[in-house]
Design a protein that fits this description.
Elements: E1 5-10, E2 13-20, H1 21-28, H2 32-47, E3 53-54, H3 66-78, H4 81-85, H5 94-108, E4 117-120, H6 122-134, E5 140-144, H7 150-157, E6 161-165, H8 176-182, E7 187-193, H9 205-222, E8 227-231, E9 254-259, E10 272-275, H10 283-296, H11 304-312, H12 321-336, E11 349-350, H13 359-367, E12 371-372, E13 374-375, E14 385-388, H14 393-411
Parallel strand pairs: 3-12, 5-6, 5-7, 7-8, 8-9
Antiparallel strand pairs: 1-2, 4-10, 9-10, 11-14, 13-14
Helix pairs in contact: 3-11, 5-11, 6-7, 6-10, 12-14
């Protein structure tokens, strides 16, 4: 029987299905988040959408900025349609890359040029390309709970293993004690996500410095670099003056994966980039490996129109006032209801503790009150749940008495 293939028995004859069992499983089993979202739609048809409190999806609800709309109109009116809708070079339009590099340099005091940027179809493409570019047989990657669940299938898709460091649930900064126990000579890269999905926590400068110190020491010990892959789609979504350290300034062997999905509410347009600094070990070879990975993964080029759009909008501010209002409202409401939570500094999620050890049971009980929450186990952190607050403010306001009722009736608080 061939490994990895699916077999079906017809009578006494075994027939092989000629497709990947692994891909079949990924395609036929929906994520918990999508399953909850679809349940909400079905339930809304019965009790009305206004009576469903769906905190499942991280789909931006702030409208795309007017300057993005105007940039699209101007490009369509002013530029050659063959250029707007045609192929670019694989790495992206050189003028676009130069404009974005200049914008990054101005904001973060870096020294990038177009040669350091590779345009991609969003952050998921950026991350997967980096895994593919770096992975060799026997390599492992490390990330920190709570983490974006798709990292696992992305890493496994390139034949590598993902190791998850348990969370420090008091702060959601990196659990360095466990990290140092888990890193080993097979570790190719460490994946960080700050501001974090699902906790909303921003890694402090001290955290980044300590991570860089450990990785420098381990790289010397192992005789090969251990990279950082910094996943940054929420970089602009921060509150209370929080600053997100630009990781390349602290650790040379860093690849930055960025997306405009959250900052400009362009989740469906799939546009982002990878930054490969000159300081990365064997820069030319790593950049070529990024290009090769993109080629193998059939990313011919990032969407041409939206390359031009983000270049025209580079450096323009995002309006996160709605997210900020929703954060305060939901955080204060849950704490008042007796639910403990680390206050997020960024992104648009809360990651509170559940009122029982079994987070899946907690979320299932909440469904009876039409509160749709995602179990923390899906993010590698049991005993928590994720609540996305990129939803209507009125929905949050209506949900707060329901949270209190749920907590009181089910848990006696």
């Amino acid at each position: 029987m061939a490994a990895g293939n699916l077999f079906v028995i017809f009578g006494d004859k075994e027939e092989e299905k000629m497709y990947s069992q692994k891909m079949y499983e990924l395609g036929s089993k929906k994520s918990t988040i999508r399953t909850i979202f679809e349940y909400g739609k079905q339930r809304a048809a019965i009790v009305g959408e206004e009576n469903i409190y769906d905190f499942s999806l991280g789909n931006p609800n702030v409208p795309t900025p007017e300057f993005v709309k105007q940039a699209i109109i101007d490009i369509l009116n002013e530029e050659d349609p063959c250029d707007v809708h045609g192929y670019t070079v694989a790495a992206g339009d050189p003028k676009v890359r130069e404009t974005l590099a200049d914008s990054i340099n101005e904001r973060f005091g870096t020294n990038f040029s177009m040669q350091n940027l590779f345009m991609t179809a969003g952050a998921a493409a950026s991350i997967t390309i980096c895994f593919k570019a770096l992975a060799e047989e026997g390599d492992e990657f490390i990330t920190f709970a709570p983490y974006f669940p798709e990292y696992k299938c992305f890493v496994e898709s390139v034949g590598s293993k993902l190791n998850v460091v348990p969370a420090n649930i008091e702060t959601f900064q990196i659990n360095f004690e466990k990290f140092e126990e888990m890193i080993n000579e097979h570790t190719k890269a460490v994946i960080i996500n700050s501001p974090n999905n699902p906790s909303g926590v921003v890694y402090s400068e001290d955290t980044i410095k300590k991570l860089a110190e450990i990785l420098t020491k381990k790289s010397d010990e192992y005789g090969h670099p251990v990279f950082i892959i910094s996943d940054e789609p929420y970089r602009e979504v921060v509150y209370d003056g929080a600053e997100v350290p630009y990781v390349t300034k602290y650790y040379a062997n860093t690849l930055v994966c960025y997306s405009y999905s959250k900052s400009f509410s362009l989740a469906g347009e799939r546009i982002g980039y990878i930054v490969v600094p000159n300081e990365v070990s064997e820069f030319a070879d790593i950049y070529a490996a990024v290009a090769g990975a993109a080629r193998v993964l059939t990313h011919v080029n990032a969407p041409s129109l939206f390359q031009k759009v983000v270049a025209r909008c580079a450096g323009k501010p995002s309006d996160i006032s709605i997210y900020e209002k929703n954060r305060e409202l939901l955080y204060n409401g849950l704490v008042e209801a007796g639910i403990a939570c680390v206050k997020p500094e960024g992104a648009f999620y809360l990651f509170p503790r559940t009122l029982e050890e079994d987070d899946r049971a907690f979320c299932e009980k909440a469904k009876a009150y039409d509160l749709l929450l995602v179990p923390g186990s899906d993010f590698g952190c049991p005993g928590h749940f994720r609540a996305s607050y990129c939803i209507k403010t009125s929905t949050i306001e209506k949900s707060l008495p329901v949270f209190k009722k749920f907590v009181k009736e089910v848990y006696g608080i």
